[in-house]
Design goal:
The protein is elongated. It has two domains: about 5-30 and about 155-220, Endonuclease Iii, domain 2 (Orthogonal Bundle); about 40-155, Orthogonal Bundle (Endonuclease III, domain 1). By secondary structure, it is mainly alpha-helical. It contains twelve helices and no strands. It has helices at about 10-25, 40-45, 50-60, 65-80, 85-90, 90-100, 105-120, 130-135, 140-155, 160-170, 180-190, 195-210. The structure holds iron/sulfur cluster. Iron/sulfur cluster binds near residues 170, 209, 216 and 227. Iron/sulfur cluster (SF4) binds near residues 209, 215, 217 and 229.
């Protein structure tokens, strides 16, 4: 099926409708995405408002790790140590056992302890609200830094993970090869008010509806009129 060129049709009103429809499909009330069923790092943010350090650590745990594992590992770790000073005082082995079975838990334990030590020592225990500074921490890439800016500081930035990259290209909003290209392209076409909510919305949507293999196009409100379904060969209800 050809669904036309979605990119040419995107306006501010179209984005309003896209966000409304995706939220409705997930059962999220309009204007309130912070009630239940959130992606793990968003849940950590909702549980701990104004705590960018926990968002930093939780996002580091989340890389290549299932959402439920990330949330459980984050909660175990923070129950033991939730501040930079307390976390830096743990041994790598202790962190490993607390975040296990997160993917690459041994490497992450090293990076998390080092990040805690740097935040405590270099920034007096305050997580820096600066993308470039955050990205100087080992284990912190652009995606993690942007999510910390978004959820920890309310700074408008677009956090592009695998779900945001895949759905944005499938839908035809952008035509890009890398997450960084997607971030730049979305910044050109998307109203700023959606930069922060985009990630948690598309992460949840990518986990449950626009899944990597065989997305649920049959029950997706974007089907055809606002999604080109580029590269999609198999769909289901
Ligand atoms: S129509 Fe299909 S491919 Fe497009 S966003 Fe919806 S689920 Fe994903």
């Amino acid at each position: 099926m050809s669904c036309g060129d979605v990119m040419k049709k995107l306006t501010g009103k179209t984005w309003d409708r896209v966000f409304q429809d995706l939220r409705a499909r997930l059962g999220w009330p309009a204007g309130d995405t912070r009630r239940g069923g959130l992606p793990s790092v968003s849940q950590v943010a909702a549980d701990n408002p104004g705590d960018p350090f926990r968002i930093l650590v939780s996002t580091m745990i989340s890389l290549r790790t299932k959402d439920d594992v990330t949330l459980a590992a984050s909660r175990r770790l923070f129950a033991k140590a939730s501040t930079p000073a307390a976390l830096a005082a743990l041994t790598e082995k202790e962190i490993e056992s607390l975040i296990y079975p997160a993917g690459f838990y041994k490497t992450k334990a090293v990076h998390i302890r080092e990040a805690a030590r740097r935040v405590e020592k270099d920034f007096h225990g305050r997580t820096p609200a600066d993308r470039d500074v955050l990205m100087r921490l080992k284990g912190v890439g652009r995606k993690t830094a942007n999510l910390v800016l978004n959820l920890g500081f309310g700074v408008e930035a677009i956090c592009v993970d695998t779900h945001v990259h895949r759905i944005s290209n499938r839908a035809g909003w952008v035509r890009t090869k890398t997450p960084e290209e997607t971030e730049m392209a979305l910044m050109e076409i998307m109203p700023r008010k959606y930069w922060i909510p985009l990630n948690e919305l598309l992460v949840k949507y990518g986990q449950t509806v626009c899944t990597p293999a065989s997305p649920h196009c049959g029950s997706c409100p974007l089907a055809c009129a606002r999604c080109e379904r580029r590269g999609v060969t198999r769909t289901r209800e």
